[in-house]
Amino acid sequence: MRRAGARRTVENALRRFGFALVAGVDEVGRGCLAGPVVAGAVMLDPSRHIPGLADSKLLPPARRDELSARIRSNALAWAVAGVEPEEIDRLNIHRASIEAMRRAVLALVPLPDAVLVDAFRIPALPMAQRGIIGGDRRCSAIAAASIVAKVHRDALMTELHAHDPRYGFDHHKGYATAEHLEALARHGLSPAHRRSFRQPLLFDTMAGEPVGDPA
Predict the structure, then answer these.
(1) pLDDT band at residue 197, thresholds of 50, 70 and 90?
(2) Is the same domain home to 85 and 189?
(3) What is the pTM of this model?
(4) Shared-domain flag, residues 115 and 33
(5) What stretches of the chain adopt beta strand conformation (E)?
(6) Is residue 204 predicted with pLDDT exceeding 70?
(7) Residue 23 needs a FRET pair 20 to 30 A away by CA distance; which of 14, 100, 173, 209 works?
(8) Domain encompassing residue 198
């Protein structure tokens, strides 16, 4: 069965209420053991429809790359922002994810009139916002943000692999796959790893399935 893509229903409703500039924001990398948590914020152009937008986890890498390029070319504005492992350890991953989203939204030029957020509300934003459960699957702007963030973060993890190939970051992008856990057992933590995950979590696998989602 073909999956239904994200829709523009919520954005269109907000525009009818006078919110001309509507952005979506989402984060990726929350469940990783290494690398930053990265957020994307995207303000789609209602006159330039981009078909095929969907949650980045549901798309193959080549399709994500294609859509990310189209989003960045056609959007009214887009931005990415990240929180690095040291700051994640200081804030905790939940607060770090929200901070990454806040930074991404505030980096948009122009600033949006309203922001659609995947699930969470973001404190200290100077504009209206609405949290939407499952927003990356339901809302085009949030789906676009998830795609831009995912492609950007994957590129960062590939760069980390080039500097330190011991962990296979180019394959698993920092998620707790068997390959990653084996590398951690051999080499210990690198500067790219987050110290705030408790040790038992690293080995919380079921029938060989990795913790998190490296898709």
Answers:
(1) confident
(2) no
(3) 0.90
(4) yes
(5) 22-28, 37-43, 77-83, 114-118, 128-132
(6) no
(7) 173
(8) 160-202
Angle CA(11)–CA(15)–CA(16) in degrees, nearest 5? 120
Question: What's the average model confidence in pLDDT over 69-91?
Answer: 98
Q: How many domains does the chain divide into?
A: 2
Distances (CA, A) of 76 to 21, 25, 130, 167, 178: 9, 14, 20, 38, 41
- Residue range 189-207: mean pLDDT, rounded: 66
Band of pLDDT at residue 168, cut at 50, 70 and 90? very high
β 37-43/77-83 pair status: antiparallel
Write b or e for each residue in 109-145: b if 16 or more Cβ atoms lie within 10 A of its Cβ, otherwise e.
eebbbbbbbbebebeebeeebeebeebbbbbbbbbbb
Mean pLDDT, residues 45-58: 94
Contact 134, 6 (CB under 8 A): no
Nearest-angstrom CA–CA distance, 167 and 183: 5
What is residue 211's predicted lDDT score, i.e. its pLDDT? 42
Q: Answer yes or no: do 27 and 118 share one domain.
A: yes
